[in-house]
Amino acid sequence: MALIKSISGIRGTVGGNPSENLTPLDVVKFTAAYGTWLIEKNNGKKVVIGRDGRISGEMVSQLAVNTLMGLGLNVVDLGLSTTPTVEMAVKWEGADGGIIITASHNPREWNALKLLNSEGEFISAEAGATILELAAKDSYKFAPVDKLGSYTVNDTYLQKHIEAIVNYPLVNKEAIAAKGYKVVVDAINSTGATAIPKLLEALGVQEVVVINSEITGKFAHNPEPLPENLTSLSAEVKKHGASFGIAVDPDVDRLCFVCEDGSMFGEEFTLVAVADYVLSKKKGNTVSNMSSTKALKEITLHHGGEYFPSAVGEVNVVNRMKEMNAVIGGEGNGGIIVPDLHYGRDALIGIGLFLSSLAQHKNGMKSFRAKYPDYFISKNKMELNNGVDVKDIFEKIKAKYKKQPVNTEDGLKIEFDQDWVHLRTSNTEPIIRIYAESNFETTANNIALRLMHDIKEFMA
C-alpha cells in the first residue's frame, strides 16, 4: 500500500491508514490544500473536475467536489471523462484550475488527484511543493455558509473535444473515411469506451468493435497498455479481420496500436509515426522524455528539425517543448502532445493524426510499421523497499560506468555506443524503472539485466 506525492499528483492505494494510503481524509486534505493555493495565489473562483471509470472514482470525486465547495470555489463537474478533455475544459470554462481523478495506468486499487493550473496544464513542481506544505500544516480556511461554492454538471465537453480534433488542420477526415477501416478498441472498462467510438465515428470509421466496454473500473487486465497486457486485443483483431486495434489507458492519455496480424505497432512508435506526419506538414523541433526511443531524434533530423530530450513526467516534457518551441512532442509510452491544440498528452488527437498518416499509406498497418526502424526497448521495474537510498545506489553505478557518457538530469542515463539504459525512480509507483534500448532485443534485455544486477548488488 502506498501514498505518493509527486509532479504527477497525489496518488495512492485506496483504503487503509490515513497518510499511508489514499483515504477519504487524504483526499479532503490535499484537495483543501490545492483549493487554498488557488484562492491565495491566484484569487481562484472556479475549478473543473472529471474522473475516469475507476471503482473509487465517484467516492473520491464527491469528496473533492464538496471540499472545493466548502472552500467557496465553484465546481464544474464533467463526470466520467478523459484527462485531455478535462485539461481542455479548464481553458474553455475560463477556470482557475482543475482536478482529474485518475491513477492513469495503475491497477484498480489505485486512484489519484491530478492537479491543473488555469492553462489546463499540470501544476509546476514549485506549486506542488507549496500545496504539500499547506497540506502538511493543515493551512486552509473554509468558507462560511453564505459563501459556499456552487456546483454544476457539464457533459458537453467530450463532444467539443472531438469536434476540435476533427477540425484540426492536419486531421484528414475524408482520407480516413475513404479507407473503410474496421477497428477493434480495447477500452479497459473505463472512459475510453465512450470517447474512442465517438471519435472514430466522427472521423468516418464505420465499423468499430469495442472490448472491455463496460465502464465498471474492474479492469479486465493490467491497465497499462503494454504488449503483455494486450493479448486479448490482438486475438480480437485477428478474429474480426480488423484493419487494426487501438488500446488506451483508463484516462485516455496514452495510445498504442495493434497491426492487422495481431502484432504490436509498439507504443514507442506511436509518437514517432505521429511526429513523422506532423513534421512532413510543418517544420519544427520535437521533444520526448529521455526514456523514449532514439527513433524520434532520427525522424526529426530527417525533416530538418532539432530534437531535445527532457526529464520524465508530462510537466517536464511540456516545459521543454515550450522552451524549444517544439511543434510535436510527448512520451514513448504512447503519450502525444500537440501544442497548438493543448499542452497535454491526448490519445484522441493522437488517433486523429495517426489515422490521417496511415490513410495516406497504400497498404495496411503492418506495412506502415515497416517504414520505421525496429529498435527495441526493454522495459523493466524493481520494487523499492522502505529506507533504500536510491541516490547512493545511482552514485555507485555512475562510478562503475564512469568511462561511458552519463546524463544525471533525471535519475541516471548511460550510453553504450548506439545503445542506452535509463534508471530512475517512478513518479507514480514505489519502484525503480530500468529501460534499455538497442537495435536488437537480446542486447537491450541483456543491458537491462546487467544494470538490474548492479542495483541488487549495491542495494545489499
TrEMBL record:
Cofactor section: Mg(2+)
Keywords: Isomerase, Magnesium, Metal-binding, Phosphoprotein
Alpha-D-phosphohexomutase C-terminal domain sequence ranges: 394-448
The enzyme's E.C. designation: 5.4.2.10
Residue ranges annotated for the Alpha-D-phosphohexomutase alpha/beta/alpha domain, each copy included: 8-138, 161-262, 270-369
Molecular functions per Gene Ontology: phosphoglucosamine mutase activity
InterPro entries in the record: A-D-PHexomutase_a/b/a-I (IPR005844), A-D-PHexomutase_a/b/a-I/II/III (IPR016055), A-D-PHexomutase_a/b/a-II (IPR005845), A-D-PHexomutase_a/b/a-III (IPR005846), A-D-PHexomutase_C (IPR005843), A-D-PHexomutase_C_sf (IPR036900), A-D-PHexomutase_CS (IPR016066), Alpha-D-phosphohexomutase_SF (IPR005841)
Keyword Phosphoprotein: yes
Family from the record: Belongs to the phosphohexose mutase family.
Protein name, as recorded: Phosphoglucosamine mutase
Gene: glmM
